[in-house]
Amino acid sequence: MITFMFLISIIIKNIDKSKKLRIMTPMAKQAQAPVVITDVMAKYIDMVKLSRSEHTARAYKNALQTFRDVLKEKWLEPESTPIEKLTEDLISPLAAYLKVFAPATEQLYLQAVKGFYEYVDSERLADINQARVHILIRQRSRRTGIRFPQFPMDDIERLLAQVENVENLALPGGDEELANLNLRAYRDRAFLLTLADTGFRVHEACKLRRGDIDWNEQRAIVIGKGDKQAVVRFTSRALQAIKDYLSLRTALDGNSGKQLTSLPLFARHDKGAGKKVKAMTPATGRNIVQERVAQFLGMDMAGKITPHSFRHYFVTSVLRGSGNLKLAQELARHSNIQVTQRYTHLSNDELDKAYYEIFEKKSKQS
């Protein structure tokens, strides 16, 4: 009898414990703060930074900032709205909001937001109908038309002619300030010739390390757009300009305490860098182009020639020199040959000449 009563007391105690557990579990869930939209956006951007380029991560961050503006217009404060409230219905007002942007920017921002929806769905943070997201984007977005690259080729050639002669950039003198100015002059010369003769994107050129270049083969193996490995060839004049620049950096690089191969190919030479060898940023690259264009071509040209103008110049030079579209695609590292085809259009001067040869010359002979 005593044993039987003892067993009953154990069962009652266990039942009481299980009741407490059942009561406590919902209370613990209620105490947990909801995950809000901005928190998930931040985690998504962190993931993009790990898998994509810095340039892409920055563009996606801007896209989500625009999406936040749209959410606020729809009375959904991203800082306080739980992620469960995110629905595919928000794609339509976003697409309408993006109509004030260029079609290419609209496509990029919608691509970024589509990736955000996929991230939310994959993390099971909200019930998202991915098929509907894709349909809404396809129905409401504009298609980007084919635009011919516009850049002043003759002006770029004038600039390169000036830059190639280092005496036009360097300054005489031996004090520390002038030494830094000379370093910048030799660096700018090497940087501009490299952009023109290789087709590098500005962020790719800024990421180059001394060890990336095979001096004998006159090329470098780099990780370019889309995280793809590629071989980039260098001209003799670009390599010579780089060698001239690096020879002036001998003492600076030697005192860095790092292996030469790990040091940036193009370094900063400003007060912020001091005696350290720090890699240039794309912003520095853009500033170099703007300063040298203003110096040699005038202030009115400073906004018309950008680092990407040199890439246009490179592709056009390859096509004019070879007439081989596939060769131009491979050297420019275009994944889609339609991008390269934009450069095959004839210039107005060439059209005028052909028109004259066909019609004007014929009428004069008759």
Q: What's a concise summary of this model?
A:
The chain has 366 residues and is mostly helical.
Structure in words:
The protein has 366 residues and is mainly alpha-helical. The protein folds into 2 domains: 37-140, DNA polymerase, domain 1 (Orthogonal Bundle); 153-349, Intergrase catalytic core (hpI Integrase, Chain A, Orthogonal Bundle), CATH 1.10.443.10. Helix content is 61%, strand content 3%. The chain has 16 helices and 3 strands. Helix 8 crosses helix 13 (307-322) and helix 13 runs antiparallel to helix 14 (325-332).
CATH superfamily of the largest domain: Intergrase catalytic core
Order of helices and strands: HHHHHHHHHEEEHHHHHHH
Total domain units: 2
Count of strand segments: 3
The percent range for strand residues is: under 5%
Strand order of the largest sheet: 1-2-3
Alpha-beta classification: mainly alpha
Overall geometry comes to: globular
Brief descriptors of the model:
16 helices; hpI Integrase, Chain A; 366 residues; globular; DNA polymerase, domain 1; 61% helix; 3 strands; mainly alpha
What's the topology here?
Blueprint: H1 2-31, H2 37-51, H3 54-73, H4 91-97, H5 103-122, H6 130-140, H7 153-164, H8 176-198, H9 202-207, E1 213-214, E2 219-223, E3 229-233, H10 236-248, H11 250-254, H12 282-297, H13 307-322, H14 325-332, H15 337-341, H16 348-365
Antiparallel strand pairs: 1-2, 2-3
